[in-house]
């Protein structure tokens, strides 16, 4: 009887306790905690060291630590490696801070848009939906089966490889290609 009562209390505690493990995703070998902000999580991802360096060089750390909410389409190191040789070192130079900032803020949309919300917008938009980025540019979200992808202003395509990495101040969707504004 004691074991049954203990089990009932244990199950009740599990049912009513906040389950942060269910909301925590792994990105770049690190747990992404919904109680941390975008920057606090991103610095732990081995797959996003180039993005973090670029955010620092562009002076956007404080912004992405802010309240938001933000939807960030976060390119991986591999995505940055797809750019023409020399592009990343050139963008990271102090004299190119404005251009770097434009490229990075092109990956950010105001609000917290989950994959389900993006999918609903795509279906309502007859196969695609247009998003306005923080930089003022346009991105189009489309669907292929159960996968979402983005098309940038230059026609480049980037797949969302990890969706719904929720943060205290928004959500990150990991993408496999750097999106480029006009």
TrEMBL record:
Gene3D superfamilies: FAS1 domain (2.30.180.10). Keywords: Signal. It comes from the Bacteria. SUPFAM superfamilies: FAS1 domain (SSF82153). Residues 35-179 form the FAS1 domain. This is FAS1 domain-containing protein. Residues 1-22 form the signal peptide. Pfam families: Fasciclin (PF02469). GO terms for cellular component: extracellular space.
């Amino acid at each position: 009887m004691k074991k049954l009562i203990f089990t009932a209390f244990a199950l009740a505690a599990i049912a009513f306790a906040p389950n942060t493990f269910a909301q925590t995703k792994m990105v770049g070998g690190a747990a992404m905690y919904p109680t941390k902000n975008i920057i606090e999580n991103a610095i732990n991802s081995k797959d996003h060291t180039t993005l973090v360096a670029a955010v620092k060089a562009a002076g956007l750390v404080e912004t992405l630590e802010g309240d938001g909410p933000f939807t960030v389409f976060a390119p991986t190191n591999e995505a940055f490696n797809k750019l023409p040789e020399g592009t990343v070192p050139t963008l990271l130079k102090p004299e190119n801070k404005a251009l770097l900032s434009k490229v990075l803020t092109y990956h950010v949309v105001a609000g917290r848009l989950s994959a389900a919300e993006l999918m609903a917008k795509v279906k309502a938009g007859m196969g695609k939906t247009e998003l306005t980025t923080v930089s003022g540019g346009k991105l189009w979200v489309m669907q292929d089966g159960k996968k979402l992808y983005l098309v940038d202003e230059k026609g480049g395509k980037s797949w969302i490889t990890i969706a719904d990495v929720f943060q205290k101040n928004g959500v990150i969707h990991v993408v496999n290609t750097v999106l480029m504004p006009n």
